């Protein structure tokens, strides 16, 4: 329905009916006139808009945009072009009908010329990921499928300073994207699936893609595939893959040929005989089977990480099947799961690392108006099941996925319709895991074992990564009761980062890279008391009068906690870096940038440049690959951990070159310290001489001022000239404001700058 803004007597309606279409009323709905039969796929769209300034200009939303200038008698579909279809929302500016916005399966677009040309609002992360997969490259990649936006692959981290942008991701499959599976030995081989079973294998090196969808032999019933059909690479043989239809298919040659493992694993029910709202559908049923091409089918499968003979399968008609002999025989254990209504959709089955017969299963009953949380575990091949959902309320929505940590198998994660949940006792109790993570459907969870990252595929807020979840992995009662616990840092890499862009405005999406260097995570039972600020009365007056209130409040909030002291020691026990870390109660995190202490403080010019985004100022050199000790101290409590630093894996350098480079860096580092000290000394002499001579000039002629002997004045003048001449080697004169050109007279860079440039 839509009401004309200028005259609410005029109402338009789209009606789904054998004789339905577009209708108009001029008396607030008392009587109606059928304008035409246009009503695109009403079960999925059913949106109509009236131009707020022209009651005959009508828009109807569908796979295409339908546009009418005669009140719906005739429609054109070529006005809106060049943007993603499947429109579900539209807004027209009441003050200017040329200004419009649409929401479609492709996101948000706006037009300033009544829909002839469109701009893409591509700066907000609203992707709808069904499934995600990870490889083991460095940095690792993520592949996943999105609702009506195909399947994509992209990096978890880029080696650029700006972070991750849309251009870092590439489309690898069309249609609606769902499962992706990456070869665990040859990660350039990726399997992707689009709706209703269309499976493909792609070589990421060449872009070559081949359809490998299993096909029934001529004369046999066709295979049924779910909207979201599961595909998996065997953890025991990387050329073996599994694919779920109404059968579970196995291929030992990457999909070039297929074998059915057993018979039809669904109930095989004929859905045309199943009643909907009490009535068996017939040829007159509108929108019959819309969006669900086939039923019943396999929705989830899992291979045991301990034995390739143990396979699990769940279906959309409620079967939960397990085989112990590689698919020769199957047993349906759905009836053994307590409290789950028969026929409930199996949303996930996941084999556990704790035993060949161990697995988790989740069920989704919302299609039957059942919003209970169903999450179960078994240790005996499904003969008995235990509910493991304590702490997850029904208001969390149905459960989509469960994952087990690869090392700490007591640590579980569950994704529901309204968020993410964590359990530290193997499902005995659950807690919502929030921080800055939004309330959003979590459709898939993966864990990158090497980096210990938690990767979430959400339906509406794209992909989220929790970098290095070691604090979650190691958290237990002993940690919670300790005054200070320093969690083991993961291996750090001295990546060499490049700058990709210059000044490109704000109309682009950029995701953050993980913090550079070594992530340092630690737990404090109590917050560190803040240090008392050292200020005199003049400082306090200036702060009160000049600092904006908002900044003052932020500073006050920051000072409610103190800082921990962090030191980095080399293999000889020498402190090479000192820094502060946050001191709040609970888990804290900071990072060491893999550099030694800066050899100097930034000059005023460098501080201005840093604030403007140019350069970093003086920095210590990157450390050599090897093992370092990190020490964290607060009060009388102290904790240490080792961290391994690796070289950027793109760098090839011989041992002799590395030694020569290290020797040069050590010399430059020492020179950087000494030249900065010399610069400070010379500037101090300059300032003292200038102040004294200026004061003498101001005092000259005053009756009570002491007279400075002429030889002293001349000596000071000569010393000033020498100091100024020497300062030219250490200090660059500040250019005039706004000057970006070269100096009128060329002079070499100051010595501290030369040394720092070489060091960098």
Write up what this structure looks like.
This protein is α+β, with helices and mostly antiparallel strands and 760 residues long. Among the domains are: 2-120, Methylamine Dehydrogenase, Chain H, CATH 2.130.10.10; 515-527 and 562-647, Immunoglobulin-like, CATH 2.60.40; 655-759, no CATH class. The protein has 8 helices and 48 strands. A 5-stranded mixed beta sheet has the order 41-48-47-44-45, with no helix packed on it. It has a 4-stranded antiparallel beta sheet with strand order 1-2-3-4, with no helix packed on it. Helix 6 (655-699) runs antiparallel to helix 7 and helix 6 runs antiparallel to helix 8 (751-759). The longest helix is centred in the C-terminal third of the chain and has 45 residues, at 655-699. The protein starts with a strand and ends with a helix. The relative contact order is 0.06. The model is unreliable at 537-556 (pLDDT under 50).
Short recap of the structure:
This protein is 14% helix and 31% strand.
Distance between the termini: 65 Å
Structural class: alpha+beta
CATH topology assignment of the domain at 2-120: Methylamine Dehydrogenase, Chain H
CATH architecture of the domain at 2-120: 7 Propeller
The main sheet comes to: 5 strands, mixed
The amount of beta strand, in percent, is 25-35%
Assign the CATH class of the domain at 2-120.
Mainly Beta
Low-confidence stretches: 537-556
Major beta sheet, strand line-up: 41-48-47-44-45
Number of helices: 8
CATH superfamily of the domain at 2-120: YVTN repeat-like/Quinoprotein amine dehydrogenase
Report the principal-axis shape: globular
Task: Report mean pLDDT, rounded to a whole number.
Answer: 93
Biased composition (Basic and acidic residues): 532-561
Region (Disordered): 528-561, 726-760
GO molecular function: hydrolase activity, acting on glycosyl bonds
InterPro entries: WD40/YVTN_repeat-like_dom_sf, Xyloglucanase_GH74
């Amino acid at each position: 329905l839509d009401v004309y803004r200028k005259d609410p007597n005029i109402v338009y309606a789209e009606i789904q009916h054998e004789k339905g279409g577009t209708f108009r009323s001029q008396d607030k709905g008392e009587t109606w006139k059928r304008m035409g039969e246009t009503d695109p796929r009403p079960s999925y769209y059913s949106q109509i808009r009236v131009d707020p300034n022209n009651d005959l200009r009508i828009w109807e939303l569908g796979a295409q945009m339908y546009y009418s200038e005669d009140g719906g008698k005739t429609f054109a579909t070529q006005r809106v072009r060049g943007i993603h279809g499947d429109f579900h929302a539209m807004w027209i500016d009441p003050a200017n009908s040329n200004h419009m916005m649409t929401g479609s399966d492709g996101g948000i677009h706006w037009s300033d010329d009544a829909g002839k040309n469109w701009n893409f609002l591509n700066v907000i992360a609203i992707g709808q990921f069904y499934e995600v997969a990870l490889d083991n490259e460095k940095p690792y990649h993520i592949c996943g499928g999105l609702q009506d936006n195909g399947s994509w692959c992209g990096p978890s981290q880029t080696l650029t300073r700006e972070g991750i942008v849309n251009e870092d991701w590439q489309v690898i499959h069309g249609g609606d994207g769902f499962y992706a599976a990456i070869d665990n030995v040859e990660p350039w081989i990726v399997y992707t699936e689009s709706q209703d079973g269309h499976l493909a294998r792609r070589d990421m090196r060449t872009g070559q893609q081949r359809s490998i969808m299993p096909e029934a032999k001529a004369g046999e019933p066709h295979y049924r595939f779910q909207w979201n059909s599961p595909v998996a690479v065997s953890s025991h043989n990387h050329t073996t893959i599994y694919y779920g239809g109404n059968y579970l298919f196995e291929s030992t040659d990457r999909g070039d040929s297929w074998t059915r493992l057993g018979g039809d694993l669904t109930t095989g029910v004929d859905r045309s005989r199943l009643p909907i709202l009490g009535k068996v559908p017939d040829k007159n049923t509108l929108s019959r089977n819309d969006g669900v091409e086939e039923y019943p089918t396999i929705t989830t499968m899992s291979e045991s990480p301990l034995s390739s003979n143990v396979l699990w399968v769940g279906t959309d008609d409620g079967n939960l099947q397990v085989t112990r002999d590689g698919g020769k025989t199957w047993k349906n254990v759905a009836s053994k799961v307590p409290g789950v209504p028969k026929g409930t959709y199996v949303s996930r089955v996941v084999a556990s690392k704790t035993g060949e017969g161990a697995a988790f299963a989740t069920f989704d009953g919302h299609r039957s108006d059942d919003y209970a949380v169903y999450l179960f575990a078994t240790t005996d091949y499904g003969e008995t099941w235990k509910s493991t959902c304590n702490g997850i309320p029904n208001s969390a929505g149905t459960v989509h996925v469960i994952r087990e940590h690869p090392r700490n198998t007591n640590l579980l994660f569950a994704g529901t319709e309204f968020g993410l949940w964590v359990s530290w006792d193997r499902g005995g109790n659950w807690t919502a895991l929030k921080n800055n993570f939004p309330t959003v459907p979590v459709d898939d969870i993966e864990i990158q074992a090497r980096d210990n990252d938690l990767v979430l595929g959400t339906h509406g807020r794209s992909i989220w990564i929790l970098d290095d979840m070691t604090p979650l992995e190691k958290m237990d009662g002993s940690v919670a009761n300790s005054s200070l616990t320093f969690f083991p840092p993961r291996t750090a890499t001295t990546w060499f980062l490049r700058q990709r862009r210059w000044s490109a405005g704000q109309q682009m999406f950029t995701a953050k890279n993980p913090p550079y260097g070594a992530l340092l995570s630690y737990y404090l039972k109590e917050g560190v008391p803040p240090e008392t600020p050292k200020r005199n009365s003049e400082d306090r007056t200036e702060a009160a009068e000049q600092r904006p209130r908002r900044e003052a409040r932020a500073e006050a909030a920051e000072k409610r906690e103190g800082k921990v002291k962090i030191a980095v020691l080399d293999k000889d026990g020498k402190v090479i870096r000192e820094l502060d870390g946050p001191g709040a109660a609970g888990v804290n995190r900071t990072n060491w940038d893999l550099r030694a202490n800066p050899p100097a403080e930034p000059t005023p010019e460098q501080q201005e440049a840093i604030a403007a985004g140019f350069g970093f100022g003086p920095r210590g050199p990157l450390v050599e690959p090897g093992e370092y000790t990190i020490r964290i101290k607060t009060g009388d409590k102290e904790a240490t951990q080792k961290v391994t630093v690796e070289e950027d894996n793109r760098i090839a350098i011989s041992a002799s070159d590395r030694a020569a480079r290290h020797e040069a860096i050590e010399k430059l580092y020492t020179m950087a310290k000494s030249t900065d000290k010399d610069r400070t000394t010379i500037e101090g002499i300059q300032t003292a001489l200038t102040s004294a001579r200026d004061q003498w000039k101001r005092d000259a002629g005053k009756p009570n001022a002491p007279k400075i002997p002429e030889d002293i004045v001349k000596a000071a003048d000569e010393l000033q000239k020498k100091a100024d001449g020497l300062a030219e080697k250490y200090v660059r004169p500040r250019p005039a404001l706004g000057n970006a050109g070269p100096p009128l007279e060329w002079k070499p860079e100051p010595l501290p700058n030369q040394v720092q440039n070489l060091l960098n």
